[in-house]
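Case 321 in the screening queue. Each case pairs one protein sequence with one candidate compound; here the compound is adenosine-2'-5'-diphosphate. For every case the pipeline is the same: read the inputs, emit a complex structure as tokens, and attach any notable structural observations.

Predict complex for case 321.
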Amino acid sequence: MALPAATLRTGARMPLLGLGTGPGSVGTWQTSTEPIYEAVKVAIDTGYRHIDNAESYAEEQAVGRALREKVGSVVERKDIFITSKLWNTRHHPDDVLPACQRSLTDLGLDYLDLYLMHFPVAWTRGDVYYPKDENGRAILATPDVHFMDTWKAMEKLVDAGLVKAIGVSNFNISQMEEVLTNGRIKPAVNQVESHPYLVCSKLLKCAADNNVVITAFSPLGRPGEESLHGVSPLKDPKVISIAEKHKKTPAQVCLRWQVQRGVVVVPKSTTPARILENSQIFDFELSTEDMETISGLNKDARIVKFGMCDDHPQWPFNGEF
Ligand code: A2P
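Case 321 output:
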């Protein structure tokens, strides 16, 4: 099954559906990486050809084990799209190449299809992913490293052939525009949180105007967690009613709405039945009215806020998305 794909500015095809591998909530690691190892294998067997990773998820070795079992047998390397992300503690230009090499080693790959700057704020260098002071605030890089300096180091990864494309994540509109204006290589992707309660319509317009593909993380709004104060798009009466009309699940409707507006989705699941369910979104179509109804549910409700560094001038969430 060839899944529909977005075309990046590099000409590469990025499947509209990928498996998300991050933790359920920021800073909460799974006690074992076995579920993600199994999930990646199930996803590839189910037909997924895109896996979304990040160094900070601390799962790349497990993903790498699964890839080694499947790539070369079930799927050729060129037919699977692998993303990773540069973490906040690796923004110093000297740390960018080693961080990328580490992800490549852990994933067992010799190139990444896409490497994203995970967040526009630099934290203190080192191997502690969440360096915090006694008040629980993130310890920022001193001196600060502006994201354009980090970006210039990421451009060299493209030159060296270690990554096919580079992009950003959690960048607001003006930050994305700054990289578009000043980067020698323009960002191919901006990966942001998006679901029916956080539709990001202005960002989508700006991205489309500038040939940037948007990827939505947490496209289901992290069901089962209290992050949205117990409100889940999957329990929204309007989403449920559209789902019933199409004989689909609310999760499938949330994912279909995104891909139908050209947004790549990377839902996370370690449950085989849900990995399958989330892939069955290319055999139905939402009407214009359905699309507008879902977009009208927007509440600008954000789960991932990185509040521990909200005093930093580049903290993105007081800007527009
Ligand atoms: P599980 O891993 O137990 O399947 P998001 O990607 O929006 O952050 O959401 C991730 C969460 O959503 C995971 O906890 C996952 O649980 C759950 N999930 C994934 N797919 C579905 C689905 N189709 N229906 C309900 N919950 C889902």
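Case 321 observations:
- Residues 20, 24, 218-224, 234, 251, 267-271, 274, 277-278 surround adenosine-2'-5'-diphosphate (CB under 6 Å).
- Residues 5-315 form a domain with the TIM Barrel fold (CATH 3.20.20.100).
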